[in-house]
Each structure stands twice: as structure tokens, then as C-alpha cells.
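stuck on this fold:
=====
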Amino acid sequence: MISIEITSPPRINYRNGRYEALFKNALEAILGRTENSLGALIMGTDGIAVEQVLSDEGRDLNLDVAAAEFTSLVRNAQRTGTDIGHGRLRELVLSYDDVSVAFRLINNEYFLMLALRPDAVLGRGRFELRKAQLDLVHEFVT
């Protein structure tokens, strides 16, 4: 006689028809490959976070709140590029005394954000955002 054991599938949060784990894993991979990173987020241009992975220091810096505020900069940069005929915005980088923030657009409505300490390698962070954007673009159909 053959014995078959039936087990329940692992619990995965389901949101908007896509597995939440996909987004969280992508953000964790960015942080894991970018030394001195503070947090990574997937944001909508409406200011609502789709997913976020923050270090303890990133939580202390309220990066989730900052990301919502940065959304207006992304929207304005998108509009400006279109208005002056330079095309779509692909990337935006802001550098402050205590943090650098890189944004990579997934499409016109969603973007990735990566916050880094000043001693981080910004180029590595930008590279990881580009890789994640290429992996995720098919998940965000507008």
C-alpha cells in the first residue's frame, strides 16, 4: 500500500493578485548585496508603500515616512522631463550629509527606493536597483 502525506502549503500573504513574498524577497536581496544600506521600498507614486524592508537604523530614521514625502519629488521630476521633452524619468539620486537615496522607476506609477549610509557604495546600490527593476517590471502592469 502506498502512503501519501498531504501537508498544507506554506502561508503566503496574497495581495493584489501577486505574492507578497516576491516583493519582499527582491528588497531583501537588494539590502543583502548592498553594504551599509538602510532600507529598500517599493512605492506607488500616490505615496503608498507596496512593500518595505528596513534595517533597525532605517526604522529609526523613519524611512517609510521619508519615502512618502519623496514621492512628490519623483512625480515632479517625471512631469518636468516630459514637459521639456527629455522623456521618461528612469532614475533619481539624492545625496544628503547623513544619507543617500536612489530611486529607480519600475513604470510610471511605481518605483524602487534605496537608502544608504554615506559610506555605502552608491554605484552598487544603483546596480542592484536596476536588476530588481528588470525582475519586477512584469509584475506591475498599468
User: Anything to note?
Assistant: Residues 63-83 form the longest helix (21 residues).
